[in-house]
TrEMBL record:
The keyword S-adenosyl-L-methionine does not apply. The lineage of its organism: Bacteria, Bacillati, Actinomycetota, Actinomycetes, Pseudonocardiales. GO terms for biological process: fatty acid elongation. This is NAD(P)-dependent dehydrogenase (Short-subunit alcohol dehydrogenase family). Belongs to the short-chain dehydrogenases/reductases (SDR) family. Keywords: Oxidoreductase. Residues 4-175 form the Ketoreductase domain.
Length: 245
């Protein structure tokens, strides 16, 4: 995380916003991306600039390849990527899922992660003109638990992202690029409301050994550590931030 700019996707709210603010407090210049820029992400950017760093806002749909390429072009030279953007649609059993829904879930949560990783490597690899760097994917405990009756398609996409993390880490280690993932558990964000169940965090909290949902800032701390020099010998790892669940 020393020097350069870190690109954070899904930076308008939740884990992405918390990560941006934490990195800014540590002096990291930022490129902040979301699908539809508005007051939410502008507020995050202002907070980051108030901390004394550069923070540019970029609108991009990660399911669209041309948007991903443009996003990286607008971000400029980067040494960090937080591939955080993701979403789950309404709770649904697999037998009721349409092909359209499945395609949308995979396009954002898996294809988008692969595209972002590809573009990051093209810009970070010294053999391609870069100076190395670190990539952190934000996955989900759903990748392990399966999310039965809720988002099995989303869980499958996040499991794919974890496989991407492990494989890419081995592929680009010689390029001075570290690739890791953070696997959040139950986190109290707007994610649940956007998926149609605003009370889900409270409903599921009793299943967590720590008996509460996590905070976005608690995930942000793990992301920042994986980006930073203290994790210089860590690559291909998936770090649970789950309260023990």
């Amino acid at each position: 995380m020393s020097g350069g700019t870190t690109l954070v996707t899904g930076a308008s709210r939740g884990i992405g916003a918390a990560t941006a603010r934490l990195l800014a407090s540590r002096g990291v210049d930022l490129a902040l991306a979301c699908r539809h820029p508005g007051e939410e992400i502008e507020s995050v950017a202002r907070d980051c600039r108030d901390a004394g760093v550069r923070a540019v806002v970029i609108g991009a749909d990660l399911a669209v390849e041309s948007d991903v390429v443009r996003m990286f072009d607008e971000a400029g030279p980067i040494t960090g990527l937080v591939a955080n953007a993701g979403a789950a649609p309404s709770l649904q059993r697999v037998e009721d899922m349409s092909a359209e829904r499945i395609d949308e879930v995979l396009a954002l949560n898996l294809r988008g992660a692969v595209l972002c990783s590809r573009e990051a490597v093209r810009r970070m690899a010294p053999r391609l003109g870069g100076s190395g760097g670190a990539i952190v994917h934000v996955t989900s405990r759903a990748a392990v638990l399966g999310a039965r009756g809720e988002w099995v398609d989303y869980a499958a996409a996040k499991a794919g992202t974890e496989a991407l993390t492990v494989g890419l880490a081995k592929e680009v280690a010689a390029d001075g690029i570290r690739v890791n993932a953070v696997r959040p558990g139950l986190i109290d964000t707007e994610f649940h409301a956007r998926a149609g169940e605003p009370g889900r965090a409270a409903r599921v909290a009793s299943a967590v050994p720590m008996a509460r949902a996590g905070r976005p800032e608690e995930v942000a701390g793990a992301i920042a550590w994986l980006l930073g020099d203290e994790a210089s010998y860590v690559t291909g790892a998936v770090l649970d931030v789950t309260g023990g669940r």
